[in-house]
Fold:
Amino acid sequence: MTDDEKRQQKAMLLLEYQEAEDNLAHLLEQAKRKAAAFKEVAVWLDDVAVDVKSYDPRENRRFDANLRANFQLYTDMVNLNAALASFS
Structure:
């Protein structure tokens, strides 16, 4: 292998490495957004599961509105196959 071929191979490997880093950063950002949706549902469930007898919808209006607004997202996230497919 000539020096020129070695340099060309090194440049290609560096480019592939940088593209892989960019792709990983993108996937991590997607994962963080999806985790945030799960966390919101977990907070809502925690709030309403404390004591059903003392649940006051007026106190949980923000959580209820957020859950209703994002209901399809939450149901998709509960479906693991759909969640994984959204990363493609």
Q: What stands out?
A: The mean pLDDT is 79.
